[in-house]
Amino acid sequence: MGLWSSKIHKVVEPRKHFLAEPPDSPFMPRLQDLVNQPDSHYHLLDWDPEQYWQPHRFIAEGLLPGPSSHASRESNNSLLILANAAMAFKPPRGRFNSTIHYRLLNWSRDIRTASGFHAAGPVRMLLWCHEKDKTSILPRTFIYRTKLSLLLEMTNHVEETVSSDISLGLKHQKREQRLELLSGRRVADTMQQLGIHIPAERRTELQTEIHETLARFGSGEIASLTSSSSLPTRDWHKELRELRDRFHAGEFVQAEGEAPRSRRRVKDTSKLTLDYLRLVELERNARHVQKRHDLVDGLLAKQAKIDSLDLKVHDHDLDEPTRAAALSEMRRENEELKGYLLNTKGIHTRQLFEYFKHDRRAYEQDPPLLMWDHRNAEPLKAKLEEFHPPKGLCLFDIQPRQPFPYSMTLAQDSIFSALMTTLWYSAPDTLKVLDQIAPGAFDALTSRVPAVWDPRRGGERDLADLPLRRVTPQMAYGLVEAWQHWPFKPDLLDLLRKGTLREDESNED
């Protein structure tokens, strides 16, 4: 990554460029060549790797200015951080599976409180990480949105600039194709306006799929796609298509002695060929999945009608009799849908309905919930062999939000961190968890946060239908302000001592 950062060096032309690389690094000879150049601005830091993320060491060495008594909220463009988290140490404690998740939680907290590297203003970072670590950083479906995703959304705009060609786990992140097409079409328009073109060989698998499908569908056709006509591709779908093509091409037969392409009933099933048995099995799977999605489409159509009525109820220009009629109809339709769901057999059908419902709401709210849907360009595809040693890496451009909307004092951030940690790691997965923190907290706090009830801003009329994964930064910040103004709130330290509130484990000593 030192060689990659030297390319950035030529563009940015920094006054100083600190290379933080352990002395036993295999890249050290190449980096030393950069330092030894005439009039070099490169400086090698022979430190313990733990100290690279600790700004006080940089300040102590005179490499960065100390914190100011008047912290700026304007971006600090005098500092750019380039980081490689693909080969990092395992975090010493906590529930973190990935070191970079642990680091980014601290990064987000330091932006909120104008501390650490952000004491002189929020700083931009270009971050390399392993493909497997990116799901929580920039989720592409609501179900993978985590506490880390929420906190990054509050403080940064995150773009995936480079994506690995291995796409670990991406198939499990895919939403309905309809939503990906709508999102991809918006990004294509933005890229055209910005004059950005990605060569075909640098397009990711998802981007190629979107590009080809957009060429086939018109705008109206995309909007009308159903869940069953826009399923996330499964591994066996490709196998089924290949088996069908081979069977129709006569490459294998139904049973020994049968004519090519014949599918007449065979009494002796022991004569059926293995390829034909596999074809029958996959076709049975396809019919089962299609039946389930036909049922889900019916449920989603009912939900779409309810959501449309809910938006109508919130229309301030509507006269009172019309609003009352819409509210009555919405409640009737909602009760009917809930009753239908209770009587629906199969937990997978209900789960699928919930996933599609929340992904649709996350996309359709204004602005869309997921940062992935705010991207200005599609990522470039990188190949394994372009890295040494070969690795599946992706590059994130993490830019501080400007103007910054969620500044907090250390006291506010203590409340915020404790509330968010408790909410995200408790059951149930709704704001009802607030009552476990303190009796009456749910009613007292949510009544002061109008966004949680407003469908136009991602809220729900029934908060039991609002999972924490759809809580917006505006809602989270509103809960902190509501806590501060709640006259009957219990003592924060007392709650932490009792374990009613959970301390944020990302806080560093």
String of helices and strands: HEHEHEHEHEHHHHHHHEEHHHHH
The major β-sheet equals: 5 strands, mixed
Q: Considering DSSP H and I runs of 4 or more, what fraction of the residues is helical? A: 40-55%
> How would you describe the shape?
globular
Number of strands: 7
Radius of gyration: 27 Å
Q: Work out the strand percent.
A: 5-15%
Strand order of the largest sheet: 3-4-7-5-6
Round the mean pLDDT to the nearest integer and report it: 84
Unreliable stretches, pLDDT < 50, 5 or more residues? none
Cα distance spanning the termini = 29 Å
How many helical elements? 17
> What structural category arises from helix and sheet content?
alpha/beta
Describe the structure.
- The longest helix is centred in the middle third of the chain and has 40 residues, at 274-313.
- This protein has helices at 2-12, 28-35, 55-60, 99-112, 147-155, 177-194, 205-216, 219-223, 235-248, 274-313, 320-342, 347-364, 410-424, 434-437, 441-446, 473-485, 492-498; strands spanning 17-20, 42-45, 80-84, 124-130, 156-164, 380-382, 393-400.
- It is α/β, with parallel strands linked by helices.
- Strands 3-4-7-5-6 form a 5-stranded mixed beta sheet. A two-stranded parallel ribbon has the order 1-2.
- Helix 4 runs parallel beside helix 5, helix 9 packs across helix 10 and helix 10 packs across helix 12 (347-364).
- The radius of gyration is 27 Å and the shape is globular.
Give a short overview.
The chain has helices spanning about 1-10, 30-35, 55-60, 100-110, 145-155, 175-195, 205-215, 220-225, 235-250, 275-315, 320-340, 345-365, 410-425, 435, 440-445, 475-485, 490-500, and strands at about 15-20, 40-45, 80-85, 125-130, 155-165, 380, 395-400.
